[in-house]
Here is the input.
Amino acid sequence: MDTDGLREVDGIEITVLIDNKTDSLSTTPANFTSEWSNLRKAGMEQLSGSCQCCANHGLALIVKAWIGEESKTILFDAGPVEFAVEYNGTRLGAKFGEIDGIMLSHGHWDHAGGLPMALDLIMQQNNNQEVPVYLHPGMFRQRALPLPGEDLLPIKEIPNPEDIKAKNGKPVITDKPMNVLNDMFFVSGEIDRVTPYKVGFPGHMRRSEDGKEWEPDPLIMDERYLAVNIKNKGPVIFSACSHAGIVNVMHAARKDFGNIPFHSLIGGYHLSGANEKIIDQTVEDFAQFDIDLILPGHCTGWRATNALEKKFGEKVVPIAVGMQIDM
Here is the structure.
């Protein structure tokens, strides 16, 4: 298996630094802490709008894993914009200096736009010590989206390896799977497309190799997932946007980890917009994976979240900005 050598960790702590929504009122399980409670722990003396985090279209998760006294922390994606990283991180008292590495799930602005600020904050708190940044070689070409009745809308390019080096990040560029940070985390390889109903992102384009033309890029093959395996619980799978199809992500994880139940699946499932037509098939396919906790966020969409909750009940807990999850 690709995960050979991955160590089982004793536990993990997930901080939702950036997500599309804010929600401190909905009930959650005992191991979930809401944004308001986390703001209070970080020093908030009275509740006000200026104290709260900012919801933004994107995703950034700070994931700390430990084995005994040993711990490692990874930043999984960096959200859409530098402002959100600093604004939310400051209010939550995020310990950027403890971040040992960064993984970008794929080359879209809503997951990479905040990377320069994240690196700045890490360097300010860790005495300017270089950190690895795990990247796919295909994520740096500019992308574009079609607008109904209009021309292509170019998407802002993400920071390139030279930009990252200038911020004292160390680019680790490969499309191969690997264990990282003392073998506590697993960065997947490319995700095979095996479900017949998930056919990619129609109309998605990228620049050609020479940068002169646009070419079709519906599969977005640079997208990968992150995982950590918790002792006596099982793997936790982090899928930031699931352009590959969230069921394909789970099939890839099953191939990587073997036929063992997943403890949790967290991130964006990309079942909003045009993908709403595959919600029913996707929800039905979830059942085969026996997931303890289904934690949708970012681009999942309210219709898919509602369908998942109807099918799986209390196993479904939508994430929100500022939330902390202990496993």
Observations:
- Helices lie at 35-41, 82-92, 109-112, 115-125, 161-166, 246-257, 279-286, 302-312.
- The longest helix spans residues 246-257.
- The CA atoms of residues 34 and 323 lie 5 Å apart.
